[in-house]
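Dear colleague,

Thank you for sharing your sequence with our group. We've completed the structure prediction you requested, and as agreed, I am returning the results in plain text so they can be pasted directly into your records. Please verify that the sequence below matches your submission; if there's any discrepancy, let me know and we will rerun it promptly.
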Amino acid sequence: MSQVLDELIRTAQALVTNGLVRGAGGNVSAREDDTMWISPSGFSFLDATADDYPGVSIQSGEIVRGQRRPSSEVLMHLAVYRRRPEVTAVIHTHPPITIALTAAGHDLRPMYPDCYVYLGPHVPHLDYITVTTPELAAAVEQVVQAPGVRGIVLRNHGTLTVGASIKEAYFRALAMEEQAVIQHAALQVGVPRLLTRAECAHLDMLGSEAYRRELLARMKG
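Please find the predicted C-alpha cells below.
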C-alpha cells in the first residue's frame, strides 16, 4: 500500500475519534504525484479500507485506480489541488460546534495561540452553497487561491482545511473546531476577548512557533 494512502486512512479514522465526522460524513484526500487519493462515497472512515479509496488523476479528473466511486465532493478537492500546487492534503469535516456557531452568524476569530499558529489571522467564511455541486467547487477555488488561506468555514455545511502534509491539514481541522468550542463557551459567560494584531505578530516572531510550523508542514505518519 502507498504510504501516503496509509497515512490518509489513519488520519480519516482519527477524525471520527475526535468527533469531527459521523457516519459516512466528511471526505479526505491526499496528493501523490498526479494522483489524488480520496475517500470513497458512502463509506464511513472506520469501514473504508485501502482497496476502497479510489485514485483520481488531478489533471483529468478520471479514476485511475480502484472501482469505488469517489467522494461526492471530488470536484471541490480537485479544485484545491489544481489551484494550490503546494497543497498535498485536503480535509473536509462536519464539526458540530463550528457549524452551529457560524450558522448563528458568528465568525471564527483567534482567541488562543494554536488557532492563530495553525490557521492564521483570518479564516474565510463562505455562505452556504448546495453541497457537491460545481458551484461549490468553484467558490472554494476562488477563496482558497488567496495568499495565506489554510482553512475555510462552509456555513451550514462544515469546514475545509489544507496542508503541505496530511498532518498539517489534520491539525488545522482540529484547531478550527477547538476555536469554535472555546468561542462558544466564552459567549455563554461574557464577551470573548480576541487576540490582538500585536499579539499575533509577536507569535510570528517566536522561534518556537516557526519551528513547529515548519515541522508540521513536512511531518509524515
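Summary note from our side: The two ends are 14 Å apart (CA to CA).

Kind regards,
the structure core
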